[in-house]
Design a protein that fits this description.
Blueprint lengths: L9 H10 L3 H6 L24 E5 L5 H20 L6 E4 L16 H8 L5 E5 L3 E3 L1 H8 L9 E3 L1 E2 L21 E2 L5 E4 H13 L6 E2 L2 H10 L8 E2 L3 E5 L10 E3 L15 E6 L9 H6 L7 E6 L8 E3 L10 H11 L9 E6 L2 E3 L1 H8 L9 E3 L1 E4 L6 E4 L5 E4 H9 L11 H11 L5 E2 L13 H5 L5 E3 L6 H8 L20
Parallel strand pairs: 1-2, 1-3, 5-10, 11-12, 13-14, 13-16, 14-15, 18-22
Antiparallel strand pairs: 3-8, 4-12, 5-8, 6-7, 9-19, 16-21, 17-23, 18-21, 19-20
Length: 496
């Protein structure tokens, strides 16, 4: 998807193409039920056997995430051993597919059905940060008839129709519920088996994977022909160990990964993409908000303006994607024109970002590895495809990633190609996985569920549409000691 800063509505136009398939979904919203409690539930007298549950950790290929997910897998197995039950099957999702389709889950439904469809009753998905209490989970799942189709989770809903969900359910957005992955979510095996058949018989409708949790809920609901999400109170995103979480089967370990000393500001080079028409409109916002936290920052434009200052890289501005400009920035990063640093961050001129939080987050990653980090989207994952980091929320590169990319022959097919998607294709061809962090955001805070943001310490947001960006920065991204900060979150845990 194009993410340059001088787009004349093309981002909206791109989504509008996807939006066309959502029209029947919006029309069908009137028929959706609030929950599935009217369905017949199972006999709660018999506690579910642990061997009937397959656990799937939504892991990633980067070494930090692999190690974190493996530690979580061992904790689940240790809990099972302590309870003197049979050890369950615990899978790491990034190992279940030869390409990058696994994280989008739907393409691997046939594998779940073929491998576990006869001997298991539930597939339970959880993120790397999700903490699990096995006895409470078994007690919770035992309330539901495993012979029926069930889609269980902690419900989220949109407060208003949003671009990231293609403006679905515009008449009443709160009517549609989708799961908060951080709380864990479950599918019964009858539902898995039917979805597996559907995936094999029908191609996935959308080329783009943007917000997986919402898109999976839509696919399962199937315009009212399938089950909607059933809310389960025991699936929680409350802080692990807190009194409020005593009845929870799942909790959260941390809101912001932090693995030691923050990466120094002088080791992060920040490149801001802009153009002449936005010099007076957007650059002042950057200077009022987050620029003061950046030790090394340059602005790249189609016009050299000494008052900012901006640098003209010799690439003409385009109305669509900005691949030519982005690759010129990558080349400059490795040149002697800028200080040598381990990390490069490329943002748009309407990106709001917390540099101090980014410093903490990057403490978890090895700059000697090829790291391409941000908010992950997918293209064509139902037929293989590739993942990419959407540019508006910020794209983070380790130096090694840039070196490997530029040593390859992969380049833009045109200056106005979508830079983020081309980078995704390039890294996919090099066998370098993109690394997802839910703390980067392609859209504004208003475009996300309040309950979803409540358990985050976000790193970035994007776009100035119908908001005061300075207020948004001070509310969501400013540190506690910044003047005027209204920072809503305080928990940053140093335990990973």
């Amino acid at each position: 998807m194009p993410t340059g800063t001088c787009l004349l509505g093309n981002k909206v136009a791109s989504f509008c193409l996807i939006f066309l398939y959502c029209i029947p979904v919006i029309a069908a919203a009137k028929d959706i039920k609030e929950d599935n409690h009217s369905q017949v539930q199972g006999d709660s007298k018999r506690l579910l056997d642990l061997k009937e549950v397959v656990f799937v950790i939504q892991s990633q290929g980067n070494s930090f995430h692999e190690n974190h997910a493996e530690k979580q897998r061992q904790e689940i197995l240790q809990q099972a051993a302590n309870s003197e039950q049979n050890l369950p099957i615990v899978l790491l999702i990034h190992k279940l597919s030869e390409n990058e389709a696994g994280w989008s889950i739907l393409p691997i439904m046939p594998r779940f059905s073929a491998t576990y469809g006869r001997n298991s009753s539930w597939i339970f998905f959880l993120e790397e940060e999700t903490t699990l209490k096995i006895p409470k989970l078994l007690e919770t799942l035992s309330r539901f008839d495993k012979e029926q189709e069930w889609f269980l989770g902690k419900p989220l809903h949109d407060d208003e129709s949003t671009i990231i969900h293609h403006y679905a359910f515009a008449d009443n957005p709160i009517v549609f519920k989708y799961p908060d992955f951080a709380a864990g979510w479950a599918l019964s095996m009858p539902l898995i088996n039917r979805l597996a058949t559907k995936v094999k018989d029908e191609p996935l409708k959308s080329d783009f994977t943007i917000d997986l949790k919402h898109e999976i809920a839509l696919y399962i609901w199937e315009n009212g022909n399938g089950p909607s999400l059933t809310p389960v109170e025991e699936l929680c995103t409350k802080e692990e160990g807190s009194p409020a979480a005593k009845d929870c089967a799942t909790t959260l370990k941390t809101y912001l990964p932090f693995c030691g000393d923050p990466v120094e500001k002088k080791d992060i080079f920040i490149a801001v993409k802009t153009c002449r028409k936005f010099h007076k409109e957007r650059i002042p916002v950057v200077k009022k908000t987050w620029q003061k936290h950046a030790a090394l920052i340059e602005y790249y434009s189609d016009h050299a303006d000494a008052t900012i200052p901006t640098i003209n890289l010799g690439v003409p501005n385009t109305e669509r994607g900005h691949c030519g400009k982005t690759f010129a920035i990558l080349e400059r990063f490795l040149s002697e024109a800028v200080p040598k640093t381990n990390w490069l961050v490329i943002v748009d001129d309407d990106t709001l970002i917390s540099v101090p939080r980014l410093q903490k987050l990057l403490s978890c990653y090895d700059a000697n590895e090829p790291v391409f980090l941000g908010e992950r989207y997918g293209y064509g994952l139902g037929i293989g495809g590739y993942s990419y980091i959407t540019g508006g929320g910020g794209m983070v590169f380790s130096r090694e990633a840039v070196v490997r990319l530029l040593e390859s022959s992969c380049r833009c097919y045109s200056n106005d190609a979508p830079d983020d998607m081309v980078l995704g294709m390039c890294f996919n061809g090099l066998g370098i996985p993109v690394t997802h962090s839910a703390l980067f955001h392609q859209a504004r805070p208003d475009d996300y569920s309040r309950d979803y943001l409540a358990h985050q310490i976000p790193v970035s947001f994007h776009k100035h549409w119908n908001i005061d960006p300075v207020t948004v920065f001070n509310t969501w991204l400013a540190e506690e000691n910044d003047p005027g900060s209204q920072q809503p979150h305080t928990m940053i845990r140093e335990e990973l």
